[in-house]
Amino acid sequence: MAQLDTRQKLAILADAAKYDASCASSGTSKRNSKGGKGIGSTEGMGICHAYAPDGRCISLLKILLTNSCIFDCHYCINRKSSNVRRARFTAREVVDLTLAFYKRNYIEGLFLSSGIIGSSNYTMEQIVEVARSLREDHDFRGYIHLKTIPDADPELVRQAGVHADRVSINVELPTVGGLKRLAPEKSAQRIEGAMGAMRGSIDDTADARKRFKSAPRFAPAGQSTQMIVGADAATDGDIVAKAASLYGRFELRRVYYSAFSPIPDASAVLPLQRPPLMREHRLYQSDWLMRFYGYRPDEVAQATDAATGMLPLDIDPKLAWALKFRDRFPVDVNRAPREALLRVPGLGVKAVNAILTSRRWRRLALADVARLTVSIAKVRPFLIAQDWRPVALSDRADLRPIVAPVQRQLELFAA
User: Fold this and answer.
1) Paired sense of beta strands 143-147 and 109-113, if any
2) Are residues 267 and 329 located together in one domain of the fold?
3) What is the mean pLDDT of each run of 10 residues along the chain (415 residues)?
4) Residue 218 domain boundaries
5) Domains contained in the chain, number
6) What angle do CA 286, 289, 294 make, to 5 degrees?
């Protein structure tokens, strides 16, 4: 490991970090270096790495401090028994890399995670030292996201929030049974305890800032987590319920989903095939239904198959729910409340807001709605407009094939 140069370490540890999906940046406080003070900004544009929900393009240096680990989690390519090439950065090397890449306009921030080396406390100390040095020694004002270690001393985890814009603590798997089976050295109780402590610190700081303008910021972009999908027997219903619980108890900014991918020298307890990537996509869609469309977790679960507990792969969860509850439709686009319009398949939040604004001035026809959505064919059976009432269409028993997207095989050599 000592014989590797910085370029070789970067190749290994940047590649090892690709399995972590929770690296988008959003919601943090705005900082810049105008006036000649400090270095970095959270406001600019750079080389694309991730898109924030507000449309900003964010570039992050996404690496591990080390891919060595004392844990032997079955699903992790960097587990103790895995036959992979190991590397390790020092805290100083990560600081220097971050500053060098920023000055060359390659990045706008840092996403740092790590395997466990020596002990959880020692590893967490090194992660915190990177953020501390960037903030205090170099007055770095760019975005920093730190992956924290729930087994570490609570004060070390709290220090991560002092220096980072966002912190994340991975719950790893959606069920306690799955975690015990695939990551026996990790504890769901300790993970959720660390998440609860982080939420408490965020709430305390937010309260202090309401009373004292000089109060320091603490993880202004909040905390997030990630779950592996398809490594255990958890159904989509189980995953949706777990995500809803995490949002409610810890006020997370995001729950990320990562489809399990078979790894070299895989453990015999792991499935031989990866789950369909579409499953991960459907879970993200269900997550948005809860966060932006007003669906309760049990309502999202109603979109799953009663026998398997899985969301359908050929249609999105919103359409699946609407097909199960045909009695809620059609809704009148000129009269229905916002909550009912948000349930119409094919209408997004922006489209619903535009409808609510436009109908104050005139009654809307089907053509008006068509301008606000990608597929009017999906929308028509579920709404009433000035010139449209789906009398026969809404009662058809074979409605699903009509509104489901057409599956097309892409041509490899198409012009």
Assistant:
1) parallel
2) no
3) 80 83 53 52 43 62 93 89 91 95 86 93 97 95 92 94 94 94 93 95 90 86 93 94 95 92 74 87 96 95 94 95 94 96 95 95 94 86 93 78 73 57
4) 6-275
5) 2
6) 145
Asked whether residue 243 is domain-assigned, the answer is yes
SS3 5: coil
- The CA-CA-CA angle for residues 17, 102, 69, to 5°, reads 25
Domain boundary among 275, 303, 336: 275
Please report the pLDDT score of residue 252 as a whole number.
94
Residue 193: its H or E element: helix 188-211
Q: Are residues 213 and 356 in the same domain?
A: no
At position 18, the amino acid (one-letter code) is K
Give the β-pairing of 57-58 and 50-51: antiparallel
CA trace torsion 339, 343, 346, 347 (10° rounding): 0
**Whether residues 108 and 169 fall in one domain:** yes
Which residues are CB-contacts of 64 (< 8 A; sequence separation ≥ 6)?
A: 13, 16, 17, 78, 112, 113, 114, 115
Among all chains, which residue has been given the structure tokens 């929030």? 161
